[in-house]
């Protein structure tokens, strides 16, 4: 499980990205690079990290399910994810 502080920091970044999205788009359309540089660093969408909903793990994230590979495997083996079955050949 990821530290609570890191999860909270990422949520704060997500809010800041949404807050500055319109201003950022306007500055990009104008081509004002100095104005973009004055915005907070965390307002950049590139700094957002995809994290597992349950554990907060940043690596091995599966976008389609919003889970890390470990959480996904646990839920899939219990049969809690519809449409996912264990393959065998």
Discrete helix count: 4
Indicate the structural class.
mainly alpha
Low-confidence stretches: none
**Could you describe the largest sheet, including whether it forms a barrel?**
2 strands, antiparallel
Widest sheet, order of strands: 1-2
**Rough shape?**
elongated
The helix content is 40-55%
Tell me the β content: under 5%
Q: From N to C, what is the helix and strand string?
A: HHHEEH
Q: Residue-averaged pLDDT, rounded?
A: 93
Number of strands: 2
From the alpha carbons, calculate the radius of gyration and give it in angstroms. Answer: 18 Å
Overall domain count:
2
Q: How far apart lie the N and C ends?
A: 34 Å
Explain how this protein is built:
This protein is mainly α. The protein folds into 2 domains: 1-48, no CATH class; 50-84, Ribosomal Protein S14/S29 (30s Ribosomal Protein S14, Chain N), CATH 4.10.830. 47% of the residues lie in helices and 4% in strands. It has 4 helices and 2 strands; from the N terminus they run αααββα. The chain has helices at residues 4-19, 21-30, 33-38, 69-78, and strands spanning 61-62, 67-68. Strands 1-2 form a two-stranded antiparallel ribbon. A hairpin with a 4-residue loop joins strand 1 (61-62) and strand 2 (67-68). The longest helix has 16 residues, at 4-19. The mean pLDDT is 93.
